[in-house]
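Notebook, bench 3.
Goal today: get a predicted structure for PLC-like phosphodiesterase from Mycena chlorophos so we can plan the truncation constructs. The sequence was checked against the plasmid map this morning, with no discrepancies at the termini. Length recorded as 352 residues. Pasting the sequence as submitted so the record is complete.
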Amino acid sequence: MFVLALILSSWAVSAFETTSEQRVFSRPLAFDVQGHRGGRGNAVENTLPAFAWGLIDGATTLELDNGITKDGVVVVWHDEQILPEKCIDTSPATPEDPLFPYVGKYIVELTLAQLKTLDCGSQRQTNYPLQLTYPGTRISTLEEVFEFVECADPEHSIRWNIESKIDAVNSNLTASVDEFVQKQYALFAKSPYKKAITFQSFDWRSLIAMKKLDDSIITSALAEYDTTAIYGRSLSPWLAGVDINAFPGSFGAKLAHAAHAINASILSPSAYKSNLSLTTHEMVETAHSLGMQVKPWTVNSLDVAEDLLAWGVDGIISDYPNMVRRFVQQYGLVVAPKFPKLRVRRCLEQYL
């Protein structure tokens, strides 16, 4: 009962004080349960079926990743490289294509036509034994994903958390910061979902660039051990020149101050059962005192989720949004309504 009272008390606050000009985003009515890569624990990741199940399962937000092809198209996929455990070659896009087979190549090396030949829905991932497969499923463009979801969500009530997959260390393996931001923003701007989009990245240079392009875009600073703590007292190439050690407090508090320094509205740190997990109670408190929200990833343990709720986080990103939704509802928090299953499935049949 004490934990529940603590959580409900923290949720009574609708906004946070801030001394900067940084925009303060009020907590939404529904707790932000995000379907990571649509909900990769339930369906093959970052595909239309995964997003369909995210809608059916009542996710507040669909989280997804973007890459950019050789011919400049924004596609929805997580990995820089096409991995054999996720995708299968079918046939070349053109006869005797010298780049075929495409599995093993990088997205930045392949055109959209070449990517579209891949079957990325047939293989269940070893770590996700409950994952539904959809044989023949292709990688989608971001525009195609928007169109499919709009079919299932004509009221435009779903929210989005869209990540730019930029490699800040090996720049030749992905498109540049400028290309990512320009091309993603062009699609955001013409989408009816523009105001519902959060733009996130581990490469904080892209967050700064997106804010310069349009200050109204909500940005989320992603953080994990490999992009922050591993660098010790040296500057991380992922953090746009920000020196975490210049800020006061514990590492978690320093990270919150650093994200605030680039005008991010959300801090999204790792949170799992490991000594590499970054999220702490002090981090959440510090971020809130600075007017920021905290939405950790990828939370697939209810033990971890319980701690996060007690600390007053503003959202949880999970491979199992259905389970997290049920858990936060049990704690007395408001959750988003589910989308009509029949309508979602009709749209999936139309667009798949």
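Residues 203 and 303 are 29 Å apart (CA to CA). The first helix runs from residue 2 to 10.
Flagging this for group meeting.
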